Amino acid sequence: MNVGLGSVVSPDRSLANARTGFDVERVRRDFPILDREVNGQPLVYLDNAATAQKPRSVIDAISRYYSNENANIHRGVHYLSEHATAAYEAVREKARAFLGAADRREIVFVRGTTDAINLVAHSYLRSRLRQGDEIVVSAMEHHSNIVPWQLLCAESGANLRVIPMTEAGELILDAYEGLLSKRTKMVAVGHISNALGTVNSVKWIAARARERGIAVLVDGAQAAPHLPIDVCDLGCDFYAVSGHKMFGPTGIGLLYGRAELLEAMSPYQGGGDMIETVSFDGSTYARIPSKFEAGTPNIAGVVGLGAAIDYLGSVDIASMLEYEDQLLRYAIDQIGGVKGVRLIGTAREKMGVVSFLVDGIHAHDVGTIADQQGVAIRTGHHCAQPVMDFYGVAATARASFALYNTKAEVDCLVAALGRAREVFA
Amino acid sequence: MLELRELYQQIILDHNRAPRNFRELEGANRVAQGTNPLCGDKLHIYLRIDEADVIEEVAFQGSGCAISKASASLMTEAVKGRTTSQAGEMFGEFHRMVTGCDGEADLEKLGKLAAFSGVKQFPARVKCASLCWHALRAAIENDAALVSTE
Predict the structure, then answer these.
(1) Are the Cβ atoms of B40 and A380 closer than 8 angstroms?
(2) Cβ under 8 Å to B: A residues 343-382
(3) Please, which residues 13-52 of chain A have a Cβ atom closer than 8 Å to chain B?
(4) I need a surface site. Which of A70, A229, A347, B94 has the fewest CB within 10 A?
């Protein structure tokens, strides 16, 4: 890491690595952007919940695809087309293994988590929803796991019910059970909260819903870069991830859906590739998963996502988990220790995120001052306005971590917070 | 951190800490609300305009970042006692200054508002600085729609 003036190197960093067996410096060398400077300072990228940086292998895979391998898939008989098709479908199999799904037909390539949720809302739930039915979401959802359901409710006369949370940002699970009724048609919940970092007990939540024959969708956008995922073990019906948050390119994501559900669902978008036959008298639709992949897909995005899945597969997950946990505890400790800082979201089980307020300094001002020191954090409502409303604030500052962040980088943020307090003293 | 000092000048920090005309206005005959949805800045602007179109009284309420609050505070000082068209001209100069668009701004005319000349280097904060002016204009034009920076 390029240690510039003004940043503090934590002296026991190498010791920590030896303990966990996680070589963060080696990992950092895989990510070219981490070498750059911002505002004359080494980049300290702590906005991973917004998007993650990309390893060289992902960048190269996309570049190689366009330089050497680009062709449209599924319909051609020429070499490049067959090669591209094979590469595309190979990633589907990789994605199946990555998510722990049983069948590659249960993996749909989509644009991202938002796209996946809208697909499920449209193709699964819309036809099943009657006036007075209910959709259950949690108090800590990202807008993408609220608004699609609200659109359906407005259309159908169904109601949105919200699982409440505590001040610490933990879901009140008794209240959740109390919300489930004969009218409940869907439970949609985030695996890890992007605003608070809370890890939700999605397996338990899914089990209670399944007992009552209620479908469950899990928003896994924040989980995919941090946790091994096993959709069969979780017992959910749908699971959505975004490629760009798990070190892959933007514009690509995965929707896992149980085969029998996907088979029964109506198409989402119409067009080429999702059909079997088309005539002006009527068309028939392709089998799953093609039924949900209309038009030329983001082939390069799929290739990049495959490389990202490979990259995560090359990391020792157990030591990564331990490293990230240690880093998060350090961050919570150090950021929380700054005078005037109030941590937002203090669940016992957290991953990846530290949201906070600084007394007397608006989040936006904190972010600008941090930016001047090369530190990238996010400030605002984080697409979770209901969470902001719950805490009675307009915005928080949020530092979010990935496997390439270090304790020294946390120290840079803490120094920036000190600077902010000086400026606003 | 030279650039930071250019943005967070003493006068801005002062007006953020102790904003002037920071109250509701009794007898206001023009009111508008402005919001910056990206960061949660929210301002109410209250005006009392007389028959000669002079801004007799101006006040504001709301919450937001230091730039938005200081800008509103300095704006109220700048437009009080001016006509609505003078205030409109001032908005034009202010906008020119913070965006760097439409040619050089007349910093002389802007007086204390020139403290925001550093905002140009921080494009993400232009909306914070100009929110109050957009709300002011909406209030003058009696445009009841919610002013948003989006």
Answers:
(1) yes
(2) 361-365, 368-369, 372-373, 379-381
(3) 39
(4) A70
- Taking only the tens place, the pLDDT of each residue in A218-260 is 999 999 999 999 999 999 999 999 999 999 999 999 999 999 9
pLDDT number for residue A19: 52
Bridge partners of residue B147, in order along the sequence? B34
Amino acid at B60: F
Q: Residue A73 has what DSSP assignment? A: -
Nearest CB partner across the interface for A362, out of B1, B3, B66: B66
**Which among A368, A380, A388 has CB closest to B7?**
A368
Closest CA to A113 of A309, A262, A303, A254: A254
Q: Do B38 and A380 touch (CB under 8 A)?
A: yes
In angstroms and rounded to an integer, the radius of gyration of the C-alpha atoms of chain A is 22
Query: Residue A145's closest CA among A222, A200, A217?
Result: A217
Please write the tens of the pLDDT for every residue from B92-105: 999 999 998 888 88
Helix axes A13-20, A407-423, angle to 10 degrees: 140
**How high is the ipTM of this complex?**
0.88
